[in-house]
Amino acid sequence: MWLTVSRSAGYATPVRIPPLLRLAALIGCLAAQPGVAQVAVSGRLTILDRGDRPGQDVGNAVLWLESPTLPAAMPVETRIVTEGKQFVPRIVVVPAGSTVRFPNNDPFNHNVFSLSEQGSFDLGLYGRGEEKGTVLAHPGLVQVYCNVHAQMSAVILVRGNGQWVRPGSDGSFRFSDVPAGDYTLHVWHERAQPVSQPLRVGAAAPAPLALTLDARRWRFVQHKDKTGRAYSDRGRRY
Ligand SMILES: [Cu+2]
């Protein structure tokens, strides 16, 4: 049941980072951790749904190791497409300072917005073939919606220092190169209460972790539009 998951699977693709900047970042990373052994931290996450059944979408979870001693990841530029009245992909993780663009592939207008404290924005109405974006400067959770279509939602997790992974479809995860040290391990899934716990990593790889997130009390709540009104109160159908 244990699978190795690439930490880059399903994530933002770095583009247009100048070679000199990449070299400077690499030197910075190496200088920050001279001679520190790196080990793998792996385990398995279970989402507990109503009736104590395991959630089938555990692969939508995100786990990250936080420590002020870990170097910050370089900002990237990534895209979330609006297509078929959905955001694709729906869950994205990017380093702080990254640019997220929203190309519209639908033959009608969307209005992408967020009211999240860490990264509020309103891209306005725009149509097929157009693309607008925003820079997310601060670590946190950014809920993204469309002011036209109530069913559209995405989540962007903006991370500061640290490493992150997403589990495979069976919940298995693996951080491949973790320097020895003290960390906080955060586990997030959109239906569950997030969990954070201390994690000490020594010179040898720790025993696989068994983690559970409780989603048994989750229920769907329709978000409001960008003015705080219910979509259903706006006098027209979408
Ligand atoms: Cu829309």
**Which sheet architecture does the biggest sheet show?**
5 strands, mixed
Strand content: 35-45%
In terms of quaternary structure, what is this? Answer: single chain
Q: Please tell me what the overall shape is.
A: globular
Widest sheet: strand ordering? 7-13-12-9-10
According to CATH, the fold-level topology is Immunoglobulin-like
**SS elements, strand count:** 18
Q: What Rg do the Cα atoms give? A: 19 Å
User: Can you write the helix and strand succession as a string?
Assistant: HEEEEEEEEEEEEEEEEEE
Termini distance?
Answer: 43 Å
Number of domains: 1
Low-pLDDT runs of 5+ residues are 1-32
By CATH's scheme, which homologous superfamily applies? Cupredoxins -  blue copper proteins
Question: Please, how many helices?
Answer: 1
Structure classification: mainly beta
Question: How much helical structure, as a percent, in the residues?
Answer: under 10%
On the 0 to 100 scale, the average pLDDT is 86
Bound molecules: copper (II) ion
CATH class: Mainly Beta
Question: Which architecture per CATH?
Answer: Sandwich
